[in-house]
Specification:
Low-confidence stretches: 386-416
Largest sheet: 5 strands, parallel
Order of helices and strands: EHEHEEEHEHEHHHEHEEHEEHHEEEEH
Strand order of the largest sheet: 2-1-3-6-7
Number of domains: 3
Number of strands: 16
Strand content: 15-25%
CATH topology of the largest domain: Heat Shock Protein 90
Mean pLDDT: 80
CATH superfamily of the largest domain: Histidine kinase-like ATPase, C-terminal domain
Shape: elongated
Amino acid sequence: MVITSLIQVLLIEDNLAEARLLKEVLKGAKHQEFNLIHANRLGEGLGRLESDDFDIILLDLTLPDSQGLDSLTPLIKKAPHLPIVVLTNTNDEELALEAVRQGAQDYLVKRHITLDILVRAICYAIERKQMAEQLREANQTLEKRVEERTKQLIKAQELNQLKSEFVAMLSHDFRNPLNTILLSAGLLEESGDKLTREQQLSYFQMIRTAIKEMDQLLGEILLLGKADAGKLQGNFYDLDLEELGKILVKSIQLNTNNNHQIFFVPQGKFKSGVWDEKLLRHILNNLLNNAVKYSPNGGKITFELIKQQTEVIIRISDQGIGISSEAQKRLFQPFYRAENVDNIPGTGLGLAIVQKCVEAHGGTISVESEIGKGTIFTVILPIIEEVIWKNQKIDSELVTSKASRTLEVTQGKINE
């Protein structure tokens, strides 16, 4: 706000004689020109603020349609950038001082008003309001910078924490298979001629298993890094989800020695639709293996595959150890593991990868769980059917575009 050669003044005063007097007083100013617009009610003054531009408001605190400080609040709300000088009678000075505390820039006792006092009060009020606005803007800018810096520090702390967890995970989860390889290789080297053929094969199998574990861990880390870099794009093909589900369930049942009951419940026809089989295997294998891992022997696991008009719902439920409500908030963060997993092995990467693979399909994932009673994971994926084929492969950008058009419906299902 800058004081111009012509200062526009809005006077809200119900006494016509006093309004004329103030107007005449301002005409005598030699170094500053004033244009005074008179309103005899608060409502009229508020209307003027909507239609005209002003530099300052002179406000009488005793008006026909408003009394005292009740007049100040709507004016500040209507024009927070304008300075206000209140006009008071001698016995209203206490009220005038309170008005200044609540946002007015100054007050004038009517019977003491002279040209010099009035001009000085108007100019000083404009200057004070301008400085207050500049200070407010500076504070807002500073607060914004502090907020941004705080976010940066929090992010940096999270990254440092992530690095620490990553190093700790590597030192633990890589050391175990490496120790297995070193021990087995050492025994084969030093005592190979004393071992039976079966014992040798057993050590070789241990080495192969350890290498496979390390390769899987590296693959998970690389996949997560690719997703974080925005480079996780799927290769979408026609795929029968029901057949894929049967294959995965059979494979997991063989690996668990039938200690768990896995019930596969498909609902609908799954012959149409395009999917990335590799990403789907990450999703289903992680969720099914977790259900097995965190369930007691012989526990019941249900794998529902539900075909709807525009989406497929994947629901995997178990009767295992469950997840606390606090842990559920961080469940999809890399390297995070719930507090009740005890000595059950794991890297804390599985669910983070699942979420990235679900997002690559334009889908959503949610979890419901209760400690000691079990967990339900629900994945909702939009169905992509109308596609443009090129060498039996679908453009991933097309799939992403089509997925986004069905995502609104998809997200709504999570809360049902």
